[in-house]
Amino acid sequence: MVAHVETGHAPRNRFIAFASRWLLTTNHKEIGTLYLCLSFGLFFIAGAMAMMMRIELFEPGIQVIDPLIYNQVLTLHGLVMVFGAVMPAFVGLANWMIPLMIGAPDMALPRLNNFSFWILPFAFLILLSSLFMEGGAPNFGWTFYAPLSTTYGPPSTDFFILGVHLMGISSILGAINIIVTIVNLRAPGMTYMKMPLFVWTWFITAFLLIMVMPVLAGCVTMMLTDRHFGTSFFEAAGGGDPVMFQHIFWFFGHPEVYIMILPGFGIASQIIPTFARKKLFGYHSMVYATAAIAFLSFIVWGHHMFTTGMPLFAELFFMYATMLIAVPTGVKVFNWVATMWRGSMTFETPMLFAIGFVMMFTIGGFSGLMLALVPADVQYHDTYFVVAHFHYVLYPGAIFGTMAAVYYWLPKWCGNMYDERLGKIHFWTATFAVNLTFFPMHFTGLAGMPRRIPDYSMQFADFNMVSSVGSWLLGLTQVLFLYIVIKTVRGGEKATDEVWEGAEGLEWTVPSPAPLHTFDTPPVIGDGDHR
Amino acid sequence: MNQPPRYYVPHHSIWPIVGSVALGITAFGGATLIHQSTEKVAAEGSYGAPLFYFGLACIAFMMIGWFGTVIKENLQGKVSGLLDRSFRMSMGWFIVSEIMFFAAFFGALFYARIISVPWLAGAGNNLETHLLLWPDFADAWPLFRTPGGSTSEAMGPWGLPFINTVILVTSSATITFAHWGLKKNQRGKLTFWLFLTLALGITFLVLQVVEYKHAFDELGLSLGSGIYGSTFFMLTGFHGAHVTLGSIMLLIMFARVLRGHFTPDNHFAFEATSWYWHFVDVVWLFLFTFVYWF
Question: Distance, in angstroms, between A332 CA and closest chain B CA?
């Protein structure tokens, strides 16, 4: 019953079998794998772009990369990392794990699931093809502010716009699927307050996606009509306003940054209890904190725009609302620490990544708090301090979170244990490299080094050299990660069904590797099972 | 294994990948078309247009195939109550995402009316900007004269727009009567009211075209007439596109009703269409209030 139901009509050869398996699949595990592979590939592409920038920034002056190319690489690095690496990785994890964690036979709408995934390769094909077009790829930064992207955007901007539309469709459909799965397909007895936190955080993330991706679609549509159909949304001569672009963009953009971190919160909340061998401290407060962060994310977008000349009242409102986010986030950090307090801790690779996540995400959170202060932000705005801040929440946050999840669940996915020694080497070198790369940016930023410029003043030379060396090391460690994942998938010590001795949850009750179809008959969750 | 599974999980399906390829072609063709028809390369001819229309045709083909499969599965009794609930919820969330899409344009409208136009005229602490950039510009809504100097007239609410409001609100009522007919299994009533809804929808679209013609020819109002024209045409245009889509959905429902589809307790597609229709109606009420009236 488990294996291949469709063996009745044996395909003619292995290639057709392979293609039809992956192109036509409706299985949440296969689609999850597709998402993770795509994300991994795009992670390396966007990472290579970062390496290129760091080569140019190794020394002051213009050496290797033409500034116009630098702008394109910088733009695509941001866009591909956000929409291609981080988001699909989390959606892939959601696909794999949510049905397993809530005892569902699959996602609620399996065909739609396949559709959501296969839109993405086309979206990125269109986006990346812009590199080879006349006038080059988009060069206005991943935030594509008007008028850089409207009046002054290169011709390929239209392809970027349509690519973003496709990503939006994919995200919205995927998010609908996730919400419906969680609401409708929980196993009997799995009440909302018994759901694992990864499911909870994704539930809220999916809601954010449905609320803001259409706004992004509207935003790029206005860009398109401003570029080609004579509208004046972002054109002051027609009564519009380029600053309006920033309002609409950041109304999408701020919830978007929580879309890229909330699932990471969920992952940390799964892993830390397992290796501390304790229940998660403050489960309910974790859920409420996540919801509070999601709510606040809708009313803080103005903190990206403190230097645009907003009225004082608006600046104060956005400042206080932003600082308020530190409260639920702090609740989460304290809960993770309290979970570890007096636990029987062991430090396998997933736990190392989860602890690294908590530690270094918090650094990014604190620099975010500094940036929330209007008078201080006027100084920090558009400097490397901002770059340091968001790379601290994204790299050791979102990406370490994803890596923790991969080490944690990979044995369940492929049935083999990863190499613990290599995993630990990966963690320690990546942690070292991440700090070597991004910590000096705090200093250069505070000293006034502007972001997005390929050249810089002499006094920033030393720190930039350190950053560049760190970034290359960081890139290398991810090649090691790729090696570890491939090695694990191909073989290794067999994993038990439970995999981790302290792990709780439905995903550990199915065999390792997880068969193609699980929970055709739903498990029943008793009153005692509480995660 | 005699018991049917709790939840129907379809096996391999060709339609999603057809849809993805079609969307990819449409997006690439659309970008090429827009790009080529407006840039200098237009003279060289555009392969964007054929690509774009081919992509759209593929999307239509995919939808017919995909929905056809689902309808067949439903007729075979594979759709359990649980799956029906999944369909309903996803339609609801889809409409939420549509609401947020319109919210972006309403946001632009309110931003222009409350912030950018008054500021350009010197409100708040923007007097110096006003004096330096466009000292002659005066704050007004509808914006008859843009800071750059282009002029147009505004669309008043009480002619065609009001008639259209009455038409859409009426059609929201008629589709509800049709639904009542379906629930009581009164097929004649269902067919009549559904047909009337469809006719009202199409009338709305025709009148919208007449209105646009009036705007272009007599009022000098176009996408290029500043922020008033921009918000006016984007909001009414996207609403019109949604009414078109809703009318196509109504047409398909009508064809299915004539074929004898739907039973009093199994008619999700009909209900989804009626929700969508109510949604475009409510959006119109906001449009009428904030674009035409106040």
Answer: 29
Instruction: Output the DSSP codes for A359-382.
Output: HHHHHHHHHHHHHHSHHHHHHHTT
Q: Measure the CA–CA gap between A181 and A179, rounded to whole angstroms.
A: 5
What residue type is assigned to position B222 of the chain?
S
Does this model's pTM top 0.90?
yes
- Is the C-alpha dihedral spanning A187, A188, A190, A192 positive or negative? positive
Apex CA A402: angle with CA A397 and CA A408, to 5°? 125
Helix ranges restricted to H, A103-156: 110-129
Q: Which residues contact A356 (CB under 8 A, 6 or more apart)?
A: A396, A400, A427, A431
Please state whether the peptide bond connecting residue A105 to the residue before it is cis, i.e. omega within 30 degrees of 0.
Answer: no
Q: Is A106 on the interface with B (CB under 8 A)?
A: yes
Do A199 and A101 touch, CB atoms closer than 8 A? yes
Assign B263 to helix, strand or coil. strand
Which residue in chain A is spatially nearest to B66 when comparing CA positions? A111
Give the Cα separation of A138 and A510 in Å (integer): 46
Q: How many interface pairs between A and B have CB atoms less than 8 angstroms apart?
A: 228
Dihedral (Cα; A156, A162, A163, A164), 10-degree rounding: 110
A20, A115, A185, A256, best to mutate vs chain B, most B CBs in 10 Å: A115
Q: Which distant-in-sequence residues (6+ apart) come within 8 Å of B186 by Cβ?
A: none
pLDDT digits 0-9 by tens, A239-249: 999 999 999 99
Nearest to A29 by CA among A87, A88, A114, A132: A114
Neighbours of B45 (CB within 10 A): 9
The predicted model gives B67-80 an average pLDDT of 87
pLDDT averaged over every residue in chain B? 91
What is the Cα–Cα distance from B249 to A77, expressed in whole angstroms? 41
Q: How far is B182 from chain A (nearest CA, A)?
A: 26
Tens digits of residue pLDDT in B236-253? 999 999 999 999 999 999
Query: In degrees rounded to 5, what are phi and psi of residue B171?
Result: -65, -30
From first CA to last CA, the distance across chain B in angstroms is 64
The string over A368-381, giving b where at least 16 C-beta atoms fall within 10 Å of a residue's C-beta and e elsewhere, is bbebbbbeebeebb
> DSSP 3-state assignment of B214?
helix
Distances (CA, A) of A383 to A290, A380, A443: 30, 6, 10
Closest by Cβ to B86, choosing from A5, A180, A243: A180
Reported as a single tens digit per residue, the pLDDT across B173-213 is 999 999 999 999 999 999 999 999 999 999 999 999 999 99
Extract the tokens encoding A413. 């996915």
From the candidates A70, A200, A202, A258, give the one annotated as an active-site residue: A258
CA atoms within 13 A on the CB side of A119: 26
| Among candidate residues A3, A4, A186, the one with its CA nearest the CA of residue A107 | A186
- Phi–psi pair at B145, nearest 5 degrees: -135, 120
